[in-house]
Amino acid sequence: MKKLPLSFYLRDDVVAIAKDLLGKVLATNFNGEYTSGRIVETEAYAGELDKASHASKGRTERTEIMFGEGGRAYVYLCYGIHQMFNIVTAKEGVAHAVLIRAVEPLEGKDIMLQRTGKKKWDDNITSGPGRLGKAFGFHTLQCGLSLQSKELFVADDGFVVKKEDLLSSPRIGVDYAGEHAEWHYRFYLEGSKYVSGKKK
Predict the structure, then answer these.
(1) Is residue 195 part of a domain?
(2) Which domain holds residue 176?
(3) Which SUPFAM superfamilies match (predicted)?
(4) Is residue 198 a part of any domain in this protein?
(5) Which residues contact 143 (CB under 8 A, 6 or more apart)?
(6) What is the distance between the alpha carbons of residues 56 and 89, in angstroms, rounded to a whole number?
(7) Any idea what the CATH number is for the domain that residue 168 is in?
(8) Total domains, the chain
C-alpha cells in the first residue's frame, strides 16, 4: 500500500481528483487507534464559483483552510453533530475540496463499533459522511492535518476501478445552491452496499 503523494492533491481539476479517490484506501491513526476503508463515494466542490461550496462566501475563519495548499484535512461540524471530512485540493489560493461521503470498512472494525456506539455490525456504519466521520474518529480539531502524516493518509493498494462501475449524480443536500445543485459532482462505485443516499 503506497501513500498518495502531495502532487496528487495539488492538481487543478477537483472533479478528476474526486473520481481518482474512488477505490483508494482512507486510513486514520488517532490516539493509536488504526482504522481504514476503501473510498466508494465522493463529492467535488469547486471553490468560490461553486454556490454549493463553503468557499462561495469567500475567506472566513471557517473556510481559511480551504484557501491553503491542497493535501490537508478540512473537517467541519454539520447540524452541530456530524464531523464531516473533506480533502483540500489544488494550489494555495484555490479553494477546492472533496467531501468523502462513504467507505467500505477494511481494518479496525471493532474500533468503529466502539466509536459509533453500535452493538452489532451493519453496512450503514460508514455510509454517509456523518457516519464515516464518527467511525473514523474525525473531529474539527484535526482541521488542517496533513494527509502526509502518520495520523491521516490516503493510499493506493493496487485496487483498480472499472470505468463502467464509476457513476455520477447531483450532490446530496445542496438544494440551496440553485443550478449548481444539479452539477454531477457526486461520484460513487456501482454495486457498493456502503454508498449513501440515492444510487442514481
Answers:
(1) no
(2) 2-189
(3) FMT C-terminal domain-like
(4) no
(5) 65, 73, 74, 75, 76
(6) 16
(7) 3.10.300.10
(8) 1
Which grid cell is 74? Answer: 478540512
- Give the H/E segment covering residue 109: helix 109-116
Would the pTM of this model clear 0.90, i.e. be above it? Answer: yes
CA 3 from chain center: how many Å? 16
Written as one string, the DSSP assignment of 133-152 is HHHTT--GGGTT-BTBSSSE
Within a domain: 200: no
Radius of gyration for the chain, computed over Cα atoms and rounded to the nearest angstrom: 15
List the chain pLDDT tens, one digit each, 200 residues: 999 999 999 999 999 999 999 999 999 999 999 999 999 999 999 988 988 888 888 888 888 999 999 999 999 987 667 799 999 999 999 999 999 999 999 999 999 999 999 989 998 999 999 999 999 999 999 999 999 999 999 999 999 999 999 999 998 888 888 888 889 999 999 999 999 975 44
Q: Is 44 helix (H, G, I), strand (E, B) or coil?
A: strand
